[in-house]
Structure formats: structure tokens, C-alpha cells
Hints:
The protein is 35% helix and 14% strand. By secondary structure, it is an alpha/beta fold. β12 (315-318), α14 (325-332) and β13 form a beta-alpha-beta unit.
Amino acid sequence: MPDLTHFAELGLSAQTIAALEAKGFEEPTKIQAACIPLLLKDQVDVIGQAQTGTGKTAAFGLPILEIVDPNAYQVQALILAPTRELAVQNAEEINSLKGNRRLEIAAVYGGASMDLQLRKLRRGVHVVVGTPGRILDHLRRGSLNLEHLKFVVLDEADEMLDMGFVDDIEEVLKQTPVEKRMLCFSATMPAPIKRLAEKFMRNPEFVQIQQDINTSNLTDQIYFEVREGDKFEALTRIIDMEEDFYGLIFCRTKVQCDEIGQKLNARGYDAEPLHGDLSQKQRELILQKMKNRTISIVVATDVAARGIDISDLTHVINYSLPEDPESYIHRVGRTGRAGKKGVAITFVGPREFNRFAFIKKVSKNDIRRESVPEASEIIGIKRARILSKLTEILAEEHDPNDTFLPLAQQLLEDNTPEQVVLTLLNHFYKDELDEAKYKNIGQGGGDREQRRDSRYSEEAGFTRLFIARGRKDGLDKRRLIDYLIEQVGARDQDLQDVSVRDDFSFVSAPLQVAERILQTFSDRSSEGRPLITRAKPDNPNGKNLSGRTRYDDRPARSGRGGYEDRPRGGGGRRSRDDYQPYGRDTHGGEDERSRSDEGSERPYRSEGSSRPHGMYSGSGKGKAFPKSRSNSNGKKW
């Protein structure tokens, strides 16, 4: 392959070179340098293999623009793409490269107005870019004529086959002229693509571009060992570490995309979910907002993100581990492009290490392990950022006749400089430096005992509370937290280590918040006892072998055999609670577990729901917990 380092050396016309220069392109990528001369000089079919983000669109788009006759208003090139987003993106890219040529390029895909597409096709177009399903619709309607076709292109062919389009593709190809040229571009070359090539292509030239490494040298690849329940907290810390985070977050399911998007919005981040349940108009709006920097985060599934090309991403976050090495490479390849550095971070859960090791081995990438940033580290970075920004502003020259000068002098006359500055900082930065808003995170890995003991750090000033209500009374973690917030004005982050059992619950709170809770519920009795009391240590020193405080399950009481009669401890594995970032409840060893509870815990939301189960019956000093369904004894709480 000749070493062609400038577009002018590829045989392109001056008109095309001018269009490329206007877009700031000077040097072709490897796939462009290999394919463009081949397609311009020889009447051959081409199979091009190169990773996503290597410039494949221009590799086939530029020769098509050179060869298509602008005077003949007939469909001369058909480009098939796996997704609507990629179809639109390809059409826009080719349209931007045509210069002053009078060529009509149409994007044809499902979810958009059929009438508009029909009108455009009737007026006459030169190049059609579309998804296989909608192209077939037009062929069956007779609204798309391929009689004069010179090129048919399969872009991201492996993705189209993965999405089940092979039958549609074959049906489309059968309706194309025999003499047309066929181009097939793909990141991978599985057997079905080879069979398709043998069936429909004529002695194709095979162009394979090997990257220097499987992902860009400009992409810093990191992984964190983190439990499922801790992932969101880890994500927010990563975002807060960067002043200008601009990233794509990959999740496995649509439900998870929605959930993470909602949680990010609730924490004040500009984020949108992107998945297959959104209308085409919604998807296009989200992508436009991302490109305009109206939002800085898109949370997407692999399928929804296929074909999306967002420039200058600083981060790609694998919130859910990719299913295979190729998916990992596709995801990570979206950052560290065009000479700009990027960061790819993968969350790996305790049960995912075998799959992650396989991904790492096959992709041949150097992915280093790091620890999730500590809250204190993030606060330090934020503090330095604020100081730097304010110092920069103070260093600017100020007009001595500034209209704010009298006001500033008045403030300093009435207050000390420290009071003025402190008040302004508190007003403008509010809780930016509040370390309490970052919840505790347990690092994944290590043996079971280490993982259990690292789960809950018994922080100084926290009090463990016992609540004489549990799941049998209709209580769950979210209802307990929300009700305490409503009754005593606590913050969500004040209520830690929440543990809900069949008949009782535990929660830890800072000393002052715990005192408010105890005072508020002091006259709300349950069988002659306060509804909420301090949990009691189970030995004189209040410590177990791990050094953590252990608590008795609950104070003994009569009428139900006492708690000593219940069997305790004993193995088992709990289902995770996605809402609570601490995952399985293991605080205090086996004293906060009973065999009857094992595996019975459930998330507070049903899948796809954004509201907690149940409603509250009101608040106020005279009411106990909200009424709910009857428990096993027919009583209400």
C-alpha cells in the first residue's frame, strides 16, 4: 500500500479537496488512503475492515461523490446502515463533503414521516442512505427505483447482521442491478459477512486496517472494582473529579438507562437516557443537545449507541460490563479520537472478573486498576478549582468607577471581610464542598470477610437505631428512608446502613439526627414500647472480632416468644437492592440476619417504575408509621 499522507495524492478532484479543506481535513486516515484510490481507478467491489471511528464514511463517500452524475436525478448510490442514527449521520457527513456539487442526498429510515420521504424521492435524489427495513418498504411501494444504481454500500455490516437484518439485506440486494459495485465495511469479519460477500460480490478486494493497538493510544483505560449497589456513587465521583466531563455512559438495559439518567438529573447533572423505546424525534433531539453541549452526559445501551459519532468525548464509562471484547473495543473507541485524549472507565463487579479477564486478554489492551476516588480527594479538587477560578477573577483589572464599588464598600463597613467572603461562597457554592453528600463505598474484590467488614465503616458520631417494624408491616428501605426524612427533616445521606427485616429494621444516623428521630417517635408506642430506640451492643465492649460495633437483633419482649427463640445467622446470599448503595446487608455480622430473611430482600421499585410502592397516610406528631397492609397477625402499623 503506497504511503499517501494527503488527500491531494488520492486522485480526488480539486472541488472535493476544497470541501475537505473547508472542514479542516488535510490527512486521510488509513482506511481512506487505502480505499479511495482503489474505488476511483478500478471497477472493483471492496470489503473494508476497520474499527469504528476510523473514517469509513469518507472512505466510500468521497469516491461516490466523484463518480455519481449530478445531471441524472436517479438513485445512483444506496447506503445501508444498521440504525437510524447512523443513517442520518452518514447522510449529513456525505452532504457536507459534496462541496458545491448539485447532488441530492436523502436519509430514509423508520420513525420519520413517510410522506416527507416519498415527496423527496419523487423529486429525485442521487444518493439514498437508509435502514434495511425502510428501504424494503419503499421498494415494495414502488417509490424507490434502483434501476440506475452504481453503488450499494453495507456500512457497519457486522452490526446489521447482529441486529437480524440479514434477510432484509439479501432481499434488497436481489433488487439491485448485477453491474453495480458493492462495498462492504465492517469492524469485524464474521462468517455470515463472508457468505454474503461470496453470494453478491464479484471478486472483491479485501482491505484490512490493523490499528497500532486495539484502541487508541490516546485513550487511558482504567477499571474499578465496585459492587453493583456502589456503581452510581462511583459514577458521580468520577464526574465530579472532572471540571468539563463530557461523556457516554453504557448500560445493559433500557430500564437501567432510565434509572441512571433520572438519578443523575436528581443530583444536578445534565444527562439524558438513549435507548430503543424513544421515538426518532426524541433520539435526534437528545443527540443534538449533546452535540450543542446543552447536556454533557448520555446514558445509552449498546444498540442505541451504534453509529452515533459524538466528537471530543472526554470519557466513556462502562457502567455495565460489555458482553464481549468487540463491544468493549467499540465502546472505548468513542473517546481518544482526532488527536485528543480520552478516558475509558469500566466498573467490574465481584462476579464479573472472569468475563473481564477474557475481554482484557482478547482485546489486548492495557487496562490498569485504580481505586474509586475518596470523597476527601474530590472535595480537595473542588476547593482548588474554586480557589483558582476566584483568584483568576481577582487578578483581572477592575474599573475604579465600577458601579458596584459603593455597594462593596458598604458591605465592608457593616461586616468583616471574612463574613462577606464566607457568605458569598456559601451562597454561590452551597454544598459543593459538603463531603457528607458522598456516601460510603465498599471496594470490590478480596475474600468474603474482607468485603463484608469493609462494607460499613462505623463512622464517628453515628448512632444505630432499632425500629420495631419490618417487611411484614409493609416497610421497605425506601419507605423507611422517605418517612424519616418527612418526619424529622433528615437528609437522605444522613440515613445510612439501612437494614429491613421481616419484623424489625435498623438504621444509622448522625448523633443529632438520631436524637431528633428518638424525640419525634418517643410517644409512638408499639406494644407498650417506643417504636424507635437505640440498638444495644451485644457484649460489654460493643465490638465483634472485626472491630465493628455489633448490635443485638432487638430488645427482648414478651408475647411472641422473645427474640432469643429465633434461629440466627447462617450463610445464604441476598438479592441486591439497587437503590441502596451498600448492597447486601451484613452490618454487625450475623446479629442482624435471620434464616427466614435470607434471599427475601427486594428492591424498593418494580422494574420500570420510578415511584416507591405504597403511599403515605400523612405526617405529624400524633401519627405513627403510615398505614399499610396487614401483617401476619392482622395488625396494621
